[in-house]
Amino acid sequence: MADDDRNPEDDFQEMLRRLFGGQDGSGPDPEQLEQLRAMGVDPAMMENVMRQLQAAFSSAPAGGISWEVAQRQALHIANQSDLGVTSGQRGEFDQAFALATLWLGEVTSISDLAEPPRALSRGGWVEATMPVWQELAEPVATSIADALTEAMRSQAPEDMQQVIAGAGRVMRTIGGSLFATQLGQVIGQLSLQVVSGGDVGIPVMPAGEAAILPQNFADFGRDLEVPEDQLALYLATRELAHARLFRHAKWLRLHVISQVTEFARGVHVDMDALEDLASRFDPQHPDELRDALSSGALLPQHSPAQTAALERLENLLALIEGWVEVVTADATTRLPHAARIAEAVRRRRAVGGPAEKALGSLVGLELRPRRMREAAAMWRAVTDAVGTAGRDALWDYPDLMPASGDIDDSRSLIERLQARARGEQPARDEMDEALDALLRGDVPPAADPGDDTPGDGRAGDTPGDGRAGDTPGDDDAPGDDDAPHGPQPV
Q1: CA 475, CA 384: separation in Å to the nearest integer?
Q2: Helix axis angle, 87-107 relative to 214-221, nearest 10°?
Q3: Cβ-count burial of 222 within 10 angstroms (0-12 exposed, 13-18 middle, 19+ buried)?
């Protein structure tokens, strides 16, 4: 192959292969290390860099991000203190889930799950939820890897640009591996805290599945001074309600995830902060880069588009959590300590633990329903006004969902639902009519501005609906199916 036909990426990889792997790929090339020593470069430092890069290359797919790294890191943290699930714990939660199922049948029209709920270990939760974490984090990981490549390109001298041109995939691999490792640490820490599958607020469990982590359940209830059987029943009911909702509203899972990824795609790295970090980066101490990732120092303030996406997501999470809270409260009225447990759950979700804050720093998004109390009050008012069936029917289609304004003031929403229950059509405003006409395609094209003749401008027209031979007022005649519908152009 002629030199001009060589791919810059091939040249870059060949240079790394010769430097990092020696001639046979078994280890660093002593001759190369000696040359580095003569140039004043510390061979020990280079060997440390080599080991990290080799680990990244061996675990990441070509041009992509190794999510196996994230899963291994998360499982390492989860399994260090994982006590597993005993048969006794499994039996206790099976009984709690069975009774919770009966209670929920009395207070919601949304049907039961197809799959039986599970008691999971910490490691089992990591394995079950990792596909969703990958889907949520991939846009951010890609953004950070691209930013690392761009920073290297902008800082390199002119005579190095050809080599740098071939480094894009390599730097994407390195940046992606760093991000995957940090994400694995966050998920591993979350596995030590989450009590149930819906505890994070987003549907991280497989669709239609519910789970409780007995080990974390015991930690959560230790200081509540609540009988353990009551706590188990309450949390089992809440978890089943959450899972039932996402199984019933099949569109909801994709809707939540798309809102999160829409926010994440707007994430970009603060180039000034990254360049400052690169200027003082010591390869012998790579923890500084990891700390920068985990602290959120490389993520700038939210853009206006991200702020709008975050507001939509918070409203959606508040609607979900508010509905779950109302349904759980109605189902657990037999529990003397239900109100105390509910308040503890609300405080826990509102404050967020260290792992959830770390996830917010890493992705720039804190998954907390800030308007949960207001949303719960709205769902309570809707339930009192139209009953459980009318309330739950709002989850049938996305366009039936309450809007942000309904959370603030539910009166108009309740009036619409009551009118629908009576078989009456709610009053429609001009904007509704115009939009319907536009969707039907009934709005005629605007007349020629230079033509002041009534009708459509064709010869022989007379005032009316635009057809030849019309007489004045014919467009008002009943049964004239050709008359334009909707607002007319002025």
Answers
A1: 47
A2: 80
A3: exposed
Rounded to the nearest 10 degrees, the angle between the axes of helix 228-248 and helix 87-107 is 60
Provide the token pair at 103: 């209670």
Segment (H or E) for 263: helix 250-265
286, 170 contact by CB (below 8 A): no
Residue with tokens 């239900």: 338
Residue type, 133: W
In whole angstroms, give the CA distance from residue 283 to residue 67: 23
Q: What angle do CA 379, 410, 395 make, to 5 degrees?
A: 45
The CA distance from 325 to 107, in Å, is 12
The answer for residues whose C-beta is within 8 angstroms of residue 257's C-beta and 6 or more apart is 132, 135, 136, 202, 203
What's the pLDDT tens digit per position in 459-487?
A: 444 444 444 444 444 444 444 444 444 44
Q: Calculate ∠ Cα 379-200-400, nearest 5°.
A: 35
Instruction: Identify which of 373, 374, 393 has the alpha carbon closest to the alpha carbon of residue 383.
Output: 393
Measured between alpha carbons, how far is 68 from 66 in angstroms, rounded to an integer? 5
Query: Whole-angstrom Cα distance, residue 189 to residue 359?
Result: 10
- d(C-alpha 115, C-alpha 127), whole Å: 18
| Residue 414 φ/ψ, nearest 5 degrees | -65, -40
Outline where DSSP puts E strands in 54-163.
118-119
In the block, tokens 């943290």 appear at: 77
The predicted-structure confidence for 289-337, as pLDDT tens digits, reads as follows 666 655 556 666 777 887 888 888 889 989 999 999 999 999 999 999 9
Structure tokens at 47: 């060997």
d(CA 430, CA 367): 38
Find out whether 209 and 118 touch, Cβ atoms under 8 Å: yes
Count of Cβ atoms closer than 10 Å to residue 328 Cβ: 27
Which amino acid belongs to residue 186?
Answer: V
CB 145 within 8 A of CB 274: no
**Which tokens belong to 97?**
């889930």
